[in-house]
């Protein structure tokens, strides 16, 4: 896969992220792979935290879920346009 396709596929799902990482141009697409990984990890952590919080778990889950969905939407639009802009708050985290 070329860089543009790898960038877009990395945002589609967990399997898409893995496919993009192993079968795509991971060196050129490092930025979007990292952004996607951070968004998916944040969504997973928010989901787990929302289940364990007794009174306000539903609120944490709803607000956190909407925030992660917004970050995902911004990230995939940036990948489609070929722009490397960080998503709000989560974009500063570097894993890859």
Compose a concise summary of this entry.
The chain is built from 4 helices and no strands.
Report on this model:
The structure is a single chain. The model has no long low-confidence stretch (mean pLDDT 93). It contains four helices and no strands. The protein has 96 residues and is mainly α. Helix 1 (3-9) runs antiparallel to helix 2, helix 2 (14-23) runs antiparallel to helix 3 (30-52) and helix 3 (30-52) runs antiparallel to helix 4.
Provide a count of the helices. Answer: 4
Strand content: under 5%
Order of helices and strands: HHHH
Helix content: 55-70%
- Radius of gyration (CA) equals 14 Å
Our measurement of the CA-to-CA distance between the termini, rounded to an integer number of angstroms, reads 19 Å
The profile of the biggest β sheet is: none
Number of strands: 0
Query: Structural class of the helices, strands and pairings?
Result: mainly alpha
Which residue ranges are poorly predicted, with pLDDT under 50 across at least 5 consecutive positions?
A: none
Mean pLDDT across every amino acid position: 93
What is the molecular shape? elongated
Topology record:
Layout: H1 3-9, H2 14-23, H3 30-52, H4 57-81
Features:
single chain, 96 residues, mainly alpha
């Amino acid at each position: 896969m070329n860089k543009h396709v790898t960038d877009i596929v990395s945002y589609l799902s967990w399997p898409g992220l893995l496919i993009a990482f192993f079968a795509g141009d991971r060196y050129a697409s490092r930025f979007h792979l990292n952004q996607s990984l951070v968004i998916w990890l944040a969504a997973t952590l928010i989901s787990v935290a929302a289940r364990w919080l007794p009174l306000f778990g539903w609120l944490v889950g709803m607000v956190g879920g909407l925030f992660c969905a917004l970050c995902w939407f911004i990230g995939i639009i940036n990948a489609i346009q070929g722009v490397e802009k960080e998503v709000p708050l989560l974009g500063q985290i570097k894993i890859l």
